[in-house]
Amino acid sequence: MHSLPIFVKLTGRSVILLGEGDAADAKRRLLERAGATIETDAEAPATLAIVAIEDEGEALAAIAQLKARGVLVNAVDRPAQCDFILPAIVDRDPVIIAIGTGGASAGLAKALRQRLEALLPATLGSLALALSGAREKMRARWAEAPSRRRAIDAALGEGGALDPLSGAGETDVRSWLDNAAGENEPPGLVDILIRSDDPDELSLRAARLLGQADAIFHAPDITPAILNRARADAVRVVSVVRPDWTGPGLALWLHRESDT
Asked: Is 206 helix (H, G, I), strand (E, B) or coil?
């Protein structure tokens, strides 16, 4: 990754916005939607600033002034000067999907946003709120976190009871819990044979399991590109032989044919 995506709560927080015109107006609307307090003075106390000044010299001077104070800057149409990027956004409150290209192409980010807008149902936000409201019931049904996580993963997977692209909502969450939906992969150790260093050549099952597993055992020659498809919080252990796994949870052994 060239940068770390984060979501910043701006409600009631000051953000400096410098400049006039269409670009500045667009950024102002975005900041207002996020609840930010907009400041137009470069000396105002703030940790974030957006510079939408058209004149090159004036813009660079403002950017330098802000950065000298330790303010993080987004410079419109000047990606080399940006400390942070404002992504294209798909808003299904409280679900927010951000698309960034590191400043390489705003047009590409926009095109992807438009495609995703057409794909994602309006019910996505209500599904998120329903899952949030059902946390205690889920904890009661699946007391152990790994089991609970796998049950949720199964429900939200393609074709699952709560498939996000199916239009699932609050009623579906209640029905899922009432019917004691199970896990899509039982706990234990699953062998994954890696035939290519290209993560795009992983089977659908392997990619899904990498996103679910609690522990990843892998041969030394398994590349980071493959391992990066696993959950960030999964335990990772280098192993030259198939390990013994007693759980709890789901573990994978990633290996090549020569390791078997």
From this structure: helix
